[in-house]
TrEMBL record:
Domain of life: Eukaryota
Pfam families listed in its UniProt record: MIP
Coiled coil: none
Keywords: Membrane, Transmembrane, Transmembrane helix
GO molecular function: channel activity
UniProt name for this protein: Uncharacterized protein
GO cellular component, one term: membrane
InterPro entries recorded: MIP
Transmembrane portions of the chain: 58-81, 93-111, 141-159, 195-215, 222-242, 278-297
Length: 307
């Protein structure tokens, strides 16, 4: 064949030989792999918020959550007992108004330090919407629960045993045992399924109608922080009034809307306060999930949540 030489045959043979595969990765490949691992580690760290576990700022903020929740439980449960004890014609209305005032004041007091959660329901929602890390949420909820216990202990220290027994320290109840017409004890109250639905619906309305304004910095800036806090208090007061009025059932204290507030008296007083206690945790949990799903449906350009 024209132009074909013996040297060309040797070169062709070498070209067709199977070359050994390089098993040692290049420096560029190693660098990319390290970068990917570092990126995954960073994302996981951000989700868990591991740095919050050793952050003095977060732990100091949790103290505000603890004290704020303790004051909330003490004052709110005192209001519950007093409004029933004085036998006003509209105890539900009085309770709702006073609850709105107390909650507004406490949010204003704790917001600059911790964000003014003082409620696991708010912390659950903040976690699921990405506003706080998992570690920070756990620290906050633990602080709120401890605060609820301290508030119930403080209330127990200032009321006599008769009031403690009669009003169950103002705790959250679905049912109570009352004397029946034939002299035998009977259980009166609300069905567990009804109470759960009320907890879910009222919890979602609370987050949707008020707390979202605090999460959305555009709205908060537009109407003012204090106005937002007042709206939160008013909405919560209205929900307390609705949940206690719409059922009109003795033995049911209305939607808890704050698991820590329900937990404190249950631990300190015990007894029937544990009956159906899970409702006051599961309900807000479901409400938070539904609220978080709702926020995902909002177009990004319309969402202005705090970072």
């Amino acid at each position: 064949m024209a132009g074909y030489t013996e040297g060309d045959e040797e070169n062709l043979f070498r070209a067709n030989k199977i070359q050994r595969f390089a098993t040692t990765p290049t420096a560029e490949v190693v660098k990319n792999e390290k970068g990917m691992k570092k990126q995954k580690s960073t994302i996981l760290s951000e989700i868990l918020g591991l740095e919050d576990l050793v952050s003095l700022t977060v732990w100091r903020a949790s103290v505000a959550e603890l004290i704020g929740t303790a004051v909330l439980v003490f004052t709110l449960d005192t209001i519950v007992i007093s409004t029933i004890q004085i036998e006003t014609k509209t105890p539900n209305l009085v309770l709702s108004i006073l609850a709105a005032i107390i909650i507004t004041i406490l949010i204003i007091a704790t917001f600059p330090i911790s964000g003014g959660h003082i409620n696991p329901l708010v912390t659950f929602a903040a976690l699921l919407t990405g506003l706080v890390s998992l570690s920070k949420a756990i620290i906050y909820v633990l602080a709120q629960c401890v605060g609820g216990i301290f508030g119930a202990l403080a209330l127990k220290a200032v009321v006599n045993s008769e009031i403690q027994q009669t009003f169950s320290l103002g705790g959250c109840t679905l049912t109570v045992v009352a004397p029946g017409p034939d002299g035998q004890s009977t259980v009166i109250g609300l069905e567990t399924s009804q109470a759960l639905w009320l907890e879910i619906i009222c919890g979602f309305v609370f987050l949707f109608a008020s707390v979202w304004m605090a999460f959305d910095h555009r709205q908060a800036k537009g109407i003012g922080r204090v106005s937002v806090f007042i709206i939160i208090g008013v909405v919560l007061g209205l929900l307390v009034y609705i949940s206690t009025t719409v059922t009109a059932t003795k033995g049911y204290t209305g939607a808890g809307l704050n698991p820590a507030r329900c937990l404190g008296p249950a631990i300190v007083r015990g007894g029937h306060l544990w009956d159906g206690h899970w409702v006051f945790w599961v309900g807000p949990g479901i409400a938070s999930v539904v609220f978080a799903l709702y926020t995902k449906l909002i177009p990004p350009q319309l969402s202005h949540t705090l970072e």
